[in-house]
Amino acid sequence: MNKIRLKFSLFQLSFSLLCLFKCIDLVGQCNPYFKVPLSNRSTNYNIEVKLNDLDKTVTGKQTVEFTNQSEVEINTLKFYMYLNAFKNSESSFLKGTSKIFGRSIVDKPLDEWGRIDIQKTHYTLDGYSGDLDKRMKYISPDDGNVHDQSVLQADLVQPLKPKAKIRLDIEWTAKMPKTIARSGYSKDFYLFCHWFPQLGVFEKNASGNWDWNCHQFFRSTEFYADFGVYDVSITTDKKFNISSSGCKISENENMDNTITRKFHLEDVIDFAWAIHSNSRIYSDHWNGVELEMMLPVDYSNQAERFMSILKFAFSYLDTHVGKFPFAKMSLVCPPFYALQSGLMEYPTLITTGSFYGIPKQIRTIESLVVHEFVHQYFMSMVASNEKEEPWLDEGLATYFEDRIVDDAFGKKKSLVDLVGFKLDNKELTRTEYVGMKNPREGIVAKPAWEFTESNYKGLIYSKTATMLHSLQNLLGENKIDKFIQSYFNEWKFKHPRGNDFMNELKSFLTNEVDSTKAEQLYNLVYQSLYQAKIFDYSVEQISNEAKPQRAGILDNYSIPNHDQDVKLYSSEVHVQRLGDWIFPVELLVRFEDGSTKLIHWSGEEGMKQFHFEEKTKVISAQIDPEDKVLLDLNINNNSLTLNKTVAYNNKFTAKFVFWIQSLFQTLSFLV
Amino acid sequence: MMKLCIQAWKCGIERWRLILQVYLIQLILILFLGFQFYDLINTNLSHSLEVEKLVTQFDYTVFSDFLKSSGKQLANILTQLKYLIPVWLLIAIFLDSCQLLSVMSNKNTSTILLFQKMINHFASIFKIVFVILVISIIWSLLVFLPLVLNLEKMLESFSSEKYALLIILVLFILWIFGIVVLFVWSVLTRLELLANGSSIFNSLRIAWSKFLVIRGNALFFMLLYLLIHVFVFLLYLFIEGKSGMTSNLLICIFIILQQSIIIFRIQLRLMVYSGLLEMSRMNNKNYSTVN
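Predict the joint structure of the above. Result:
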C-alpha cells in the first residue's frame, strides 16, 4: 500500500514538475506578466469563449472588473457592442450605403448578418449583488439612430463610488457576420476584434466633466477603450491555426475535437484574435520579443518579406521612439477573400493584406505591415481616441510608415521601383493630400465620423503626416525624434488628446528653439490641424535690365566718363503667396556669375518684389530651396529659371512619342 | 522554317524604302500630338528648377504636381487620341495592305505604284478588315465579358486568388491565340483578294481553308513574331532602367534606339506578311507575283 502511495506520490510529483517545467517553458518563451503595472488597469477582463464553426456562433462568459478611478460616482455603465453594427442595414455603421470595401451588402442572406446579445449580467458591488438584465438598453448618443445597437447602457442599482470596484459576470452569445468590416468570417478565416461586450472609457470630457466616452460605430470610426488585463480562453475546432493578442499560457485538446487555448495580456486596451485553417504559423524573435505570423499557405513565399520588415520596424521604432514592452507581437495576414478583415491594428496584433504574386519591387506588403505596427506605439500604448481624434494615431502612424519604409528601401523608390517607375512612401503620402480635389475641404482635428470617404485619408493620414515631415525638415530629425520620444514617454499607457499633443509640442519648442522659430513651428502644426488653409508660394517673374549709363552734366560740370562706369543690372524677382496660409520662407536667388543670395521672406504679402542691383543678372529664384515645407501644394511653381532645361523637354517628348507610336503599332495588329 | 525566316528577313531588308515611308507617315501623324506635348511641358514646367530632378531620374513629386496643375491640358492632348486612333487605323489598313502588296510584288515596285494599286482595292480590303474587326470584338467579349461579370464572385468563391489569376492568364493567352488566328486569317484573305481578285466572302472562305492547311507553321511563325516583340520591349526597358536618359548624349542615343525599335517593328510586320505568303505559296501555287 505504501509502495503504491509512494508510486502515486512520485507520479504526482513528476506530473507537477512536468507541469511546472511546461509552465516555465511557456513563460520562458513568452512572458506576458509585468512586475509593475504599466497602466491604470481600470478594466480587467476574464473571458471564456467557444466558437461553433457550423453556425458561426460564439458563446461567451466574461467577468469584468471595473474600478472607478474618477472623482465622481458612476450610475451607469456603457458597453461597446460592435458586432451589432452588422445586425442590419439600418445600423449607423451601414446606413446609407449599399457597398462596403466595394462589396455589396444589399443582398446578404439572413445568416450572413451578425449580432451580439447579452443573456445575463450579474453584478457584485460593495458586498451587494444582483442582475442588471432589466436595467439595460441600447442608446445612440451620437446620431439618435434608434436602429443602432452598437452601444449598450446599463443603469446601476447603486452608484459606483470613486475608487470602488464593480464586478460583472456576463453571459453572451454572438453570431459572427460574414465579414463586412474587420470582425467576421470569410470561408475558413475568422477575425475577432471588438467581439465581446466591452466597456467604454470613463474620463473627463471636453467640458471637464466626468462621463463615459463610448461612441457608436460608424464606417469611418475605429476604437477607443481603457487599459486593463485580459485573460482569455478560446475554444475552437482543432483544424484552425490561431494567432492572438497576448501570450499563450496553456493549450488543451478536448474530447469533442476542439482545442482550448488560454492567453494572457496586460496593460492593453483591447484583445483580438484570428483563426484560419488554411494557413501557416511562422515564429521568430526580435530582441526578446516573440514574433508570430499567421499567413495563408499561398503566401509562403512572402513570409520572409513580412518578417524582415516587421523586424526592421521594431528596430527603427526602438531607436527613434521607445521600447516595445510586450513579450509577443502577432501579425495576421488574411487571405484575399477576407481582406476586409485586414489592415487594422489591435494591441500586440496587427492584420495586414497581400495578394498572390506581388513582385518584390512593389512594397505594399511592407508598407502596410509598418503602418499597422507603428500603431502599437500610437493607438495601443499612447492610446488616443481613434474615434474623436483619429489624426493623433493615424497621422503619426503614416508619418513613421513613410520614414521606416523610405529608410528600409531608399528614398524616391521605397514603395515602387518597377521598370523605371519609382515612388517613395513619403511622396505618395504627400500626393494623397496635395492631390485632393480641394485640400481645404475641412480641418484635420475633428471626429472621424465628420469626414467623408473622399477626404478621410487625405486629411487625417496624409496631411498630418506631411505636416510632420515638414516639421522634421524645419527642425531636424534628431529634434523631432526627441519631441516624439517626450510625447511618447509622457503619454504611453494613457489617453492623450489633441491638446496634450499641442501642449507637449509647445513646451518642447520653447525649450529647444528660439522663441520666434518656436512660434512659427507651433503655428505651422496648429494651422495644419485646426485650420483648413492652403500653403502655396510661387516665383512669378524674373526680370533683368541693364542700369542706364549716367548722362547729362554731373555736379562738377563734367560729362560722365562711361569707360569708368561699372555695368550694373537692375533685377527684380516677383514672388506670390497663392494660398491663405502665411509662413516665413526662404528665397534663394542665383546670379549668372554663380553667386547666390538667400533671402528670408515673412510670406505675409500676397505679392512681393525683391530688387537687386548687381554686376550680374539674376538667372533663377527658388522659394524653399531645400523643399522643407512639403505642405506646399505645388512644388514646381516654387522656382523659376531663365535657363530652361531643354534636355528635359526632349527626353519626355521622345518618350511620349515612342509610347504613342508603340500603341499605334500594337493597335494596327487588329486591322 | 529557318529558310522561311531567312527569306522573310531578306524581304524585309529589300523593302527598306517602303518601311521608312510607312514609318514617316506614322511619325508625322503622332508628331501632331508630340508637338502639343512638347509645348505643354515647355510652357508649364521647363521654367521650374524642379525639372532638373527629372533629367537624372523619375521624380514622382514633380510629376504628380505637374499633373495636378496641368492635368487638364494633358488630358486634352490625350483626348485627341480618340480621334487620332480611328484615323490611324484607317491609314494602317491602307499601309498594311500596301506592305502586303509589296511582298507579293517585285522588290523594285515603286511605292507610288503600290499606293495607286491599293486605292483600287481599298474598299474591298476595308470590308475584310471590318469583318475581322467585328469578329475580334465578338471574340474579345466572349473571352472577357464573363470574366468581368464574375470576377468579384470568382475571388470570393475560390480558395485562393491565385486560381483567379491563373484563369485570367489562361483567358489572356486564349484571347491572344484567337486574335493571332484572326490576324493570320485577315492576312490570308487579303492575299487571296489581291492575288486572285476573289469576292470578299470567297476570299474569307478560301483563306480559312488555307489557314487550316498551314496552321501549325503559321502559328509558330506568329509566336516567334510575338516573342521577338516582347523581347525587344523587355530589352529596351532593361537598358533604360540601367542607364536612363540622364544626359544630352544619352537622350540622343535613346531617341535613336526608340525610333529604331519602331522601324524594326514595321520591318517585322513586313517579314510576317512575307512569311505567310511563302507558306501559302508552298501549299498553293495560286499566289503568283503581282506585277
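Chain B touches chain A through 73 residues (CB under 8 Å).
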